[in-house]
Amino acid sequence: MTTIAPIEWTNRPTPGSPQEWIDRAAEVSAVLAADAAARDRAGTTPYAEVALLKDSGLVTLLGPAEHGGGGQDWPTAYRVIREVAKADGSIGQLLGYHYLWNWAARLVGTREQWEQVEAEAARQRWFFGGAVNPRDKDVVVQEDGDDLVFTGRKSFSTGSKVSDVTVLEGVFEGTEDHVFAIVPSDSDGLTFHDDWDNIGQRLTESGSVTLDGVRTPWASAAGYVDKTFQPRVYNTLNVPTIQLVFTHFYLGIAAGALETANTYTRAKSRPWLHGGYDSAVDEPYVIDAYGDLTAKLWAVEAFADQVAQEGQPLHDEPDSVTEQDRGEFEVRVAAVKARATEVALETAQRIFEVTGARSTASPEGLDRFWRNIRTHTLHDPVAYKRREVGRFVLTGELPQPTWYS
């Protein structure tokens, strides 16, 4: 049985500055860290963890301040994701996906649609899930009077049972036209199968979902006016935005691995009996490893922060985003995601070199960091991210907008 320690937030002022929000995220992270290994082993639905994100206000970070949201920008959101992921990679992923799906109305919808969604989401502290796995193309959308009807199946639906609303995606029957809509997660015909059973990111509620005639009003079709989609280049910014979410929770998991290993080395690691040192922290090989891993992590964190800042002007002026702007930003995101993947995997693997054989005991839970990183970094091949960068450098070719580039 695992528990999330309660914190009284209601009598405390709402964070105002980016740093105050990052500090709030650090408080949440400390709560999650207390029993992270036990919760990972239990693998139960993270209702309490999502309640913590709601109670702390983190779910409203990007929401409009006039409706109770934090009124913050994406660079702050990425830092918050990173902070939460230090303690629990699953909850960092859930929060990051929530931010993306909350923002999806703005990415794809009309101004009237996204203003309505964001206001209601902030007021009600909605938690967003998404049934938008692009590898599954069997969700068909049909028109029935003033309604749209979604039918099909998705292999993955991150956030599923813990979400208040779910972003659906399908293709109009007989066309190539995609449609997004936000529906209540308890909608008739929407069935989450609770079959996520992977080695890592165990608490992300990412199992399959069946859509059996899920109905939603035509008016909820994001970006459609008079039943015709209104395209913008900004619509395609969903991919670099979510890829940068991935980057930051990878870095958060890596930082958490390093911090947890550091605590273990100081408190429990024994020096090698033939090394001539009285403490593990004095061993030159241990010192070198921590220095090497920390330097690499700090470098990629700084790169990730820079790329986040580069992307914010695109969110500030969405109607002005050009294909060149979007393409160059995607190249930068691809580059930092490639580096984050490598440093996170290396860190999560090498921490055992500086903690010792006894650190592999199951109660320590140090393996969860590698399992989490390894599981999610397989989302899309990192070699294709390097290819985007290489082609741009050699020929100036911009990545063509797809579900992954």
Automatic annotation (TrEMBL):
Gene Ontology biological process terms in this record: L-leucine catabolic process
Domain (Acyl-CoA dehydrogenase/oxidase N-terminal) ranges: 29-116
Molecular functions (GO terms): 3-methylbutanoyl-CoA dehydrogenase activity; flavin adenine dinucleotide binding; monooxygenase activity
Sorted UniProt keywords: Flavoprotein, Monooxygenase, Oxidoreductase
Domain spans labelled Acyl-CoA dehydrogenase C-terminal: 245-379
Pfam families per UniProt: Acyl-CoA_dh_2 (PF08028), Acyl-CoA_dh_N (PF02771)
Protein name, as recorded: Monooxygenase
Taxonomic lineage from the root: Bacteria, Bacillati, Actinomycetota, Actinomycetes, Kitasatosporales
